[in-house]
Amino acid sequence: MGGPGAGKGTQSAKIERALGIPHVSTGEIFRQHIEQQTDVGREIKHLLDDGHLAPDELTVRVVRERLADADCQQGCLLDGFPRSVAQAKALDEIVELQGGRVDLVINLEVSDDEVVSRLTSRRVCPVCGAIYNLEYNPPSVDGQCDNPACEGARLIQRDDDREDVIRERIRVYHRKTEPLLQFYGAKGVLKTVRGEGKTPDAVFAKIESYLASPDVACGT
Ligand code: AMP
Q1: What is the sign, positive or negative, of the torsion defined by CA atoms of 7, 72, 22, 219?
Q2: How far lies 161's CA from each of 5, 63, 100, 182, in Å?
Q3: Nearest CA to ligand 1 atom 6
Q4: Structural domain spans, the chain
Q5: In sequence order, what are the beta bridge partners of 9?
Q6: pTM > 0.90
Q7: pLDDT at 179
Q8: CA-CA distances (angstroms) from residue 126 to 66, 131, 210?
Q9: Can you tell me the distance from the alpha carbon of 190 to that of 207, in angstroms, rounded to the nearest whole number?
Q10: CATH numeric code, 8-210
Q11: End-to-end CA distance of the chain, in Å?
């Protein structure tokens, strides 16, 4: 969990490597639908473009389908889901039916001002999904992905990384997603990690200490 620009995507890639479990990002799934112009993509494009959330029912359906895939049966990392209490309750039902549980929720905490500054300078590789920041983590060659497999792909700015949209995403986060901190806090599975002023590796070191907890069953 974490507001927009808190570092969910960056940390998810590291957790995925550390635990060897799939990284399921609802934002990424939605962006693929939009790119491929599917029915789902057409339904949600304007919502994403304006910084609003996709409907709970649709989001839960997409996640339920993904969690049924074979590669998720030993556990998976959810990035950007759930984003509302209704989604969290639906997730509990899905994982219970599969005989699992939500065993760890990492909340990345970053101030709103930091979010705006991070997101306006965020660039992503359209081929491999690598995330760069023009100030803190620029690519070696201006505007190009460092990954040799991407053969110099031009980095892009996400459509929803414009300042007016970012402000709306922050508002939506406080209103709809933040109540989840109480929901998961009460279940005793929530760990909050301050992301501000730390390198991605320093944030990950803290996360890694929580992943090592015996209560975390995924990937084993
Ligand atoms: P993200 O890549 O996680 O920042 O997500 C990008 C956008 O996709 C969000 O701003 C929402 O519009 C939409 N989205 C992603 N995950 C969810 C979710 N769990 N519920 C509703 N909308 C979502």
Answers
A1: positive
A2: 9, 24, 35, 28
A3: 27
A4: 8-210
A5: none
A6: no
A7: 96
A8: 22, 10, 31
A9: 12
A10: 3.40.50.300
A11: 22
Q: State the burial class of residue 157 (Cβ atoms within 10 Å of its Cβ: 0-12, 13-18, 19+).
A: middle
8 counts as catalytic:
yes
What is the whole-number distance in angstroms between the Cα of residue 59 and the centre of ligand 1? 9
Tell me what pLDDT residue 220 has.
Answer: 35
- Report how far ligand 1's centroid is from the alpha carbon of 214 (Å): 30
pLDDT per position as a tens digit, 87-100: 999 999 999 998 89
What are the E-state strand segments in the chain?
A: 23-25, 77-79, 105-109, 122-124, 131-133, 190-194
Assess whether 122 carries a catalytic annotation: yes
* Cβ-contact 217, 103 below 8 angstroms: yes
Size of the chain in residues: 220
**Cis amide bond preceding 148, omega within 30:** no
Cα separation, 52 vs 98, in Å, equals 30
- pLDDT tens-digit readout, 192-219: 999 887 888 999 999 999 998 766 655 4
Question: Which atom, in ligand 1's list, is nearest to the CA of 51?
Answer: 10
Annotated active-site residue 158? The verdict is yes
Q: What is the pLDDT of residue 197?
A: 78
**Would you call 94 helix, strand, or coil by DSSP?**
helix
For residue 70, report the distance from its CA to the centre of ligand 1, in Å: 24
Q: How far is the CA of 12 from the centre of ligand 1 (A)?
A: 15
Are the C-beta atoms of 218 and 74 separated by less than 8 Å?
yes
Q: Which residue has the tokens 């709306």?
A: 168
Q: 48 CB under 6 A from ligand 1?
A: yes
Residue of 83, 118, 123, 176 marked active site: 83
